[in-house]
Amino acid sequence: MAQRTVLFVLFDGVQSLDVTGPLEVFAGAEQHTPGSYRIRTASLDGAAVRTSSGLTVVPDEALAGADTPHTLVVPGGQGTRRPDARLADWLREHGPRAERLVSVCTGAIRLAEAGLLDGRRVTTHWAYCDKLAHDHPAVEVDPDPIYVRDGHVSTSAGVTSGIDLALALVEEDLGRDAALTIARHLVVFLRRPGNQAQFSAQLAAQTAQREPLREVQQWITEHPDADLSVESLAVRARLSPRHFARAFQTETGMTPGRYVDRVRLEHARRLLEDTSDGVEEISRASGYGTPEGMRRAFVRALGTAPSEYRRRFHPAQ
After folding, report:
1. Are residues 46 and 162 in the same domain?
2. What are the record keywords, sorted (predicted)?
3. Whose CA, among 17, 214, 215, 249, lies 20 to 30 Å from 88?
4. Residues 18 and 161 occupy one common structural domain
5. Final residue before a domain boundary, out of 151, 186, 221
6. Which residues sit opposite 6 in a β-bridge?
7. What is the count of structural domains for the chain?
8. Residue 202: its pLDDT value, please?
9. What is the SS3 assignment for the chain?
10. DSSP β-bridge partners for residue 140
């Protein structure tokens, strides 16, 4: 088995977890299968970089002296908000030589600045998808998945999704057993499918300003199997259904129905990941009523059925 070099590009303002999360996955793979990976870090001049959290990281080498890697990883962070012509030039020259080109979070912005994402379907952190699409119209930006693989180019969303993508790459290289062992060691799931949406209901919605509406948001989260119709929720908020629906959308940025859909999907997803409960039981606990109702919701939102979703986390079941 040929050893694969994995090179992480460092720069001032890099997000430390964008680097260390995927790096720990590849390091775990090297421990599991010695000789599988050679992990390197490099900055433009080989100088130490200061991450967005203030942590100082000393790279192994300068990019100018780095060998062409098998997998080139470009992390994100606050530093990507400022264009870097020198780094863009280096990526433009050396990026196409790597067998795999990977970005974590807003590292996609660095790749786009170098013209390496033109004509490709990509993703990045949900808060920067619109900016990436606006600044680089030749790039097809998909804001929904946690990671996207388009040919030899792979892009991931927010920080932890870089771990998911790294696990997928290790599974491709070394097999599922190796990736599962690493995921268990890191106490993470193996593995969230790339087409899983990068949202949680609480993150996707704004917190309502008025206390009755905040209480309703919390009630929905804690009781996904309850009657969550607009009429029922309006009674809890002590508002008329029409006033409640209008106020809820104004203050949270989404309709009550959309919020309920997201809460129920998230609740069902977690039960599938964390428990051995049956699909029928989970569908009732999550407010879908029937397995078919839950299946339709999963296919619509995630592009996969609940049984397939669970298989990714519990392949023996």
Report:
1. yes
2. Transcription, Transcription regulation
3. 17
4. yes
5. 186
6. 39, 71
7. 2
8. 53
9. CCCEEEEEECCCCCCHHHHHHHHHHHHHHHHHCCCCEEEEEEECCCCCEECCCCCEECCCEEHHHCCCCCEEEECCCHHHHCCCHHHHHHHHHHHHHCCEEEECCCHHHHHHHCCCCCCCEECCCHHHHHHHHHHCCCCEECCCECEEEECCEEEECCHHHHHHHHHHHHHHHHCHHHHHHHHHHHCCCCCCCCCCECCCHHHHCCCCCCHHHHHHHHHHHHCCCCCCCHHHHHHHHCCCHHHHHHHHHHHHCCCHHHHHHHHHHHHHHHHHHHCCCCHHHHHHHCCCCCHHHHHHHHHHHHCCCHHHHHHHHCCCC
10. 121
Q: Which range of residues forms the domain containing residue 303?
A: 201-313
Q: Which residue in the block uniquely carries the two structure tokens 């790749």?
A: 111
14, 19, 105, 157: the catalytic one is 105
Radius of gyration of the chain (CA): 22
CA distances from 41 to 7, 71, 285 (A): 6, 12, 46
- Give 288's contacts (C-beta < 8 A, 6+ positions apart): 264, 268, 294, 297
Integer Cα distance of 282 and 279 in angstroms: 5
Q: Which of 21, 36, 16 is nearest to 171 (CA)?
A: 36
- Tell me if 192 is assigned to some domain: no
Q: Is 129 a catalytic residue?
A: no
